[in-house]
Design a protein that fits this description.
Largest sheet: 5 strands, mixed, barrel
Order of helices and strands: HHHHEEEEE
Strand order of the largest sheet: 1-2-3-5-4
Distance between the termini: 67 Å
Helix content: 40-55%
Length: 159
């Protein structure tokens, strides 16, 4: 088999294994394999291919990896703890569109209509009420309206 194909196979295998580790080390070694493959493609002898592989791997680990790692961490740093998908809806405010009781109802969350059920069985939520999404079950949401005491201040409680 031609040296070029061997280096390409090595680079692909290292890249695939990197997907499971996420450390960027194997990806940098794959860069060295690509560099050695380029050397093989232009007719470099095997010893020079090995040198290109070593220099490319070490150079990218110490030269390129820190910048890539910092860029990836800064991109995901603010978003790493931000929920997405249906998890982003939990804790959001919703507006009741149709009366919500034990038989269900309809709420609007960020412009989308959702079938809703109250968290507390005795709660009756009227259209126009503002509620909090407590949980998502499939295509329905469980909502809760915090009642205000006589003083008008919100009292934290566990639903």
């Amino acid at each position: 088999m031609d040296d070029v194909f061997i280096w390409i196979i090595v680079a692909v295998i290292l890249g695939a294994v990197e997907l499971f580790t996420g450390t960027l080390v194997l990806a940098m070694v794959a860069v060295g394999a690509v560099l050695a493959g380029i050397g093989a493609a232009v007719g470099a002898p095997l010893w020079l291919q090995a040198v290109l592989f070593g220099v490319g791997s070490i150079g990218s680990i110490f030269g390129l990896r820190p910048f890539l790692k910092q860029a990836l961490e800064s991109d995901t740093g603010a978003q790493a703890h931000r929920p997405f998908g249906t998890r982003a809806i939990e804790g959001a405010e919703a507006r009741v569109i149709e009366t919500v009781d034990l038989s269900g109802g309809l709420v609007e969350i960020a412009g989308d209509n959702w079938t809703a059920y109250p968290l507390e069985p005795d709660q009756l939520l009227e259209p126009g009420d503002t509620v909090t999404v407590v949980e998502i079950k499939g295509a329905t949401v469980i909502v809760w309206k915090q009642s205000l005491p006589a003083g008008g201040r919100s009292v934290p409680s566990c639903p």
